[in-house]
Amino acid sequence: MAEYLAFHYLEPSQLLPPGAPLAGSIDNFPSACAHLLLRHAPKRASRALDLGCAVGRSSFEIARRIPEVIGIDYSKSFIRAAKKVQKKGRLRFNLLEEGTNTRPSFATFPTTTPRKRTTFLSGDALHLPSGLGSFDAVLAANLIDRLPEPKKFLKQILPSLVKPGGIVLLTSPYTWSSEFTPRSRWFKDSFSTIRMALRPSFRLLHRQNLPFLLREHRRKFQFTFSDATIWQRF
Ligand SMILES: C[S@@+](CC[C@H](N)C(=O)[O-])C[C@H]1O[C@@H](n2cnc3c(N)ncnc32)[C@H](O)[C@@H]1O
Question: Is 110 left (phi over 0), alpha (psi -120 to 50) or beta?
Answer without folding.
Answer: alpha
